[in-house]
Amino acid sequence: MTEEIIIAGFGGQGVLSMGKILAYSGVMENKEVSWMPSYGPEMRGGTANVIVIISDERISSPIVNSFDTAIILNQQSMDKFEKTVKPGGILIYDPNGITRHPGRKDINIYTIEAADEASKVGLSKVFNMVVLGGYLKLKPIVQPEYIRKGLEKSLPKRHHGMIPENEKAIDKGKEIIKAVQLLN
Amino acid sequence: MKGNEAFAEAAIRAGADGYFGYPITPQSEVMEYLMAEKPHERTGMIVLQAESEIAAINMVYGGAACGKRVLTSSSSPGVSLKQEGISYIAGAELPCVILNVARGGPGLGTIQPAQSDYFQSTKGGGHGDYKMLVLAPSSVQEMADFAGLGFELAFKYRNPVLILSDGAIGQMMEKVELDEQRPRFTDEEIKNNTPWATTGKTKDRERNIITSLDLDSYKQELHNLDLQAKYREMEKNETRYEAISCDDAEYLIVAYGTSARLSQKAVDLLRAEGIKVGLLRPITLFPFPTAVIAKLADQVKGILTVEMSAGQMIEDVRLAVGCRVKVEHFGRMGGIIPSPTEIVDAMHKKIIGG
Q: Measured by CB atoms within 10 angstroms of the end CB, which terminus of chain B is less buried, N or C?
């Protein structure tokens, strides 16, 4: 199994840390992982993305240009990354702020109203975990106990009190992800 | 861990005595990590932010002259600033480790990854006939491993070792296994291991003098001949490479660092098409794995070099191959990372179909 994922959105949405928690969880489950962030001018201009690869085998290239799953959290990222989903792959997006919805017919498309949900329950800080939950519902590549270990590993100790809140957000994401277009 | 952090932690564990640096993207995490980790409390290692790259490399010069395990790190424009000091260190035959987390140039260029510092790294970026031993990591694990290996080789040959990485490997995270902490050398051990070091004259020996200056041209030529003999010795003993799927290869890719990782994926894709492609990854750029490439040239129908530059290492590949098979370059510049599928296309257009 090899899962190649891109997560893309605004800086501050927790894109990089979502990827980091996923990657650490993979490490905890003894899988091979790589986490390759955009660190360049794009990041300084307000958008951020990260490529996470989780695999049972040694990972050749940490940088790829087509993905099994794209998680897209703003319009610029939609414009840039919709076309990079492999045929038959998955695109997950938060429709909040999206003006041009994805149009491809050869991929599976899901929406997750994570921003809306997070602000409703006063969990805007764990918005990214709602999204992660939605993704894990579709692709349970890492088991929940390892997600917890991943959270422990990637959050500084002083924030460990927030882990239950993060887990609640992950569960919420699993509930609210909706299929928009499914290939057979 | 990020590549930069893995290198920093591995340097502490390798028993380093001092780090001197100046921040620059994309390698700033090295000093950031060291400052946060406070190695002075763990091992007594000193971490110091110098006022400039030039100051940092000259602090390394001073530390190395005392037999200490010292290092510095920077990114391309900063490494250019260090070239004078590096030439002096090579001339004075001092051991040290220098990390270049390279970015696109020329000039300030970009902060994105590139491999356009190959000439500077392997052909002597400063003045004079000198060589650094150059290690090219292609994973976070190697970023960690080469800190310790770098010190080992630097002291073995009394020569600066350059680790030529790039922004992609510095910034990405992968799994990494770190060595156990090894103790720093004691003053007594330094006196025994490095009798040339300026540790204070004792009555039973002459003064130790560290300098790169000798105005007597005959003596200077002898010194140069010694240096060249040392470089030949490195070529004999220290050439390192990894050959992936080369046994039955009909075509070959030669690539190092990040490009080697991308190329490995390209090899998988090409083999899925039924084309037998191998990857030769130089781990040392000096000494360059000339002999193995020359041997593979008898076996394959064509060679593609993949570099994030206009094509620099290709000159060494062509020297190794002579005119026996076609050698072409594919690369992107200015901080663009080529995709594995672009490499596959280049292989088809330039080598297989060409």
A: C
Residue B199 forms part of a structural domain: no
What's the total number of domains in chain B? 2
Tell me the angle at which helices B29-37 and B3-13 cross, rounded to the nearest 10 degrees: 50
Nearest CA in chain A to B104: A40
Name residue A53's beta-bridge partners. Answer: A4, A34
Domain that holds residue B248: 241-352
Q: What is the pLDDT of residues B106-121, one digit of tens each?
A: 999 999 999 999 999 9
CA B91, CA B187: separation in Å to the nearest integer?
25
Per-residue pLDDT reduced to its tens digit, A55-67: 999 999 999 999 9
Task: Compare CB distances from B264 to A33, A35, A61 and report the shortest one's residue.
Answer: A61
Domain harbouring A109, CATH code: 3.40.920.10
CA B47 – CA B23 distance, rounded (Å): 13
C-alpha distances in Å from residue B200, one per residue of B16, B60, B88, B204: 21, 18, 22, 12
A35/B174 touch (CB, cutoff 8 Å), yes or no: yes
Q: Is the pLDDT score of A121 beyond 90?
A: no
- Closest residue to B337, CB basis, from A35, A37, A63: A63
Cβ-nearest to B262 among A34, A35, A63: A63
Q: With the C-alpha atoms ordered B187, B193, B198, B204, is the resulting torsion angle positive or negative? A: positive
Q: Is the ipTM here above 0.85?
A: yes
Task: Choose the final residue of a domain: B123, B157, B187.
Answer: B187
Domain boundary among B187, B208, B229: B187
Contact: B171, A64; criterion CB under 8 Å: no
Are residue B176 and residue B277 in the same domain, yes or no?
A: no
Query: Out of A116-130, A150-164, B86-100, B256-270, which region has the weakest mean confidence (pLDDT)?
Result: A116-130
Do B69 and B181 fall into the same domain? yes
